Amino acid sequence: MAAMNTTFLSPGSTSAPQLPRIAVLATGGTIAGTASDAAQTAGYQAGVVGVEQLMAAVPAVSGVARIEAEQIASIDSKDLDPRLWTVLSQRIEALAARDDINGIVVTHGTDTLEETAYLLHLVVKTSKPVVLTAAMRPASALSADGPMNLLGAVTLAATRAAWGQGVFVAFNNRIHSARDVVKTSTYAVDAFQSPEVGALGWVQDGRVEFQRGVVRPHTGATPFSAALGWPAVEIIPSYAGVSRIAVDAAIAAGVRGIVVAGTGNGSIHGTLQVALAEAVQRGISVVRASRVGSGHVIRNGAAPDDALGFVSAGTLNPYKARVLLMLALAAGINDRTLLQAAFDTY
Ligand code: SIN
Fold first, then answer.
1. Residue 207, SS3 per DSSP
2. Where are the beta strands (DSSP E) in the chain?
């Protein structure tokens, strides 16, 4: 992880003091990636361009906000470690506590963006806007999407109407709630969607338009914290011919929780279901999600949750369900009924 390094890109009272002050925290990703050839959009190196260079590619930002930029990390987000979540959330809270900061933008890799966004949505205690953004094309590419996404993210973070709605993802002109958003394409510039519920609104040409609000509790209205540690939680998929090897290995490794990425409406192969029921008997929390990518998992629908001691993930995909399960276990929520209530609430 790179040392934190704050740069005031438009400091002091001489540069448009009437504009909101936005902190930009860079963590790496394709938005900070470079390739040897401008036509290359795969096989590049992520997380190598520094935050000052990222901001320099978006001169229009100076008409929207005063920027305070920090390099928090320089990683490919596939390598993200929960310890970075602790660092990031604490830095966001420290910045948000300052009267002179109006909002925070985080640049991130797209690969685990939906996990970090939901994690921050559940733990950061602020009503100021926190906006994650990213890019599908490296900074060196023809038609790189990072600069426009960054401008949209800063514009959203500087908008008063964005307060009190938790953490957002601003991507390709759309505004998504952190809870809903998922990456749905390996290559498309329009790679993020909020399946079932749709985007919250749009940010385009300096304008922010909300279509709907955020209804579930988040940020200051949750009992969760990134400072309580990261209980071991594994994700295990169900598929044709699956064995119980992964469940047995997880039990032997002493995990605290398992999220099963079930088929369809969270249905589970009989072999795996028996193994998971045994995991529950050993005190491991088992959450039933779906590998499908949209829709919800109905409690006692495709599996007898009450009888087997499972919790249903509702509309959370397995990766987001793992985030919530880790936070809930770290907060001491082990009881099955309370865990189900957490999944029904957050
Ligand atoms: C990453 O997630 O860091 C690399 C891929 C991307 O940002 O699109």
1. strand
2. 6-8, 21-28, 66-75, 103-107, 130-133, 167-171, 174-177, 182-183, 192-193, 201-204, 207-210, 233-237, 257-262, 285-290, 311-312
**6, 27, 30, 133: which is the annotated catalytic residue?**
30
Task: Among 27, 44, 110, say which to mutate for ligand 1: greatest number of ligand atoms within 8 Å of CB.
Answer: 110
114-127, pLDDT tens digit by residue? Answer: 999 999 999 999 99
Q: What is the pLDDT of residue 3?
A: 38
Q: Is the CB of 73 under 6 A from ligand 1?
A: no
Q: Quote the pLDDT of residue 263.
A: 98
Whether ligand 1 lies within 6 angstroms of the CB of 144 is answered as no
Give the amino acid at 103. G
Tokens representing 97? 């506590």
pLDDT tier, 6 (very low <50, low <70, confident <90, very high otherwise): low
Q: Are the beta carbons of 120 and 154 closer than 8 angstroms?
A: no
Q: What is the pLDDT of residues 215-234, one digit of tens each?
A: 999 999 999 999 999 999 99
Using DSSP bridges, classify how beta strands 167-171 and 130-133 pair: parallel, antiparallel or unpaired: parallel
201 lines ligand 1 (CB under 6 A): no
Is it the case that residue 293 has pLDDT exceeding 70? yes
What would the mean pLDDT of 168-175 be, rounded to a whole number? 98
Q: Is 116 a catalytic residue?
A: no
Note the pTM of the prediction, 2 decimals.
0.95
- Tokens of residue 165, six digits: 């709605």
User: In sequence order, what are the residues at sequence separation of 6 or more whose Cβ sits closer than 8 angstroms to the Cβ of residue 123?
Assistant: 85, 89, 219, 222, 224, 225, 226, 327
Any atom of ligand 1 within 6 Å of the Cβ of 77: yes
Residue 227 neighbours by CB under 8 Å, 6+ apart: 86, 90
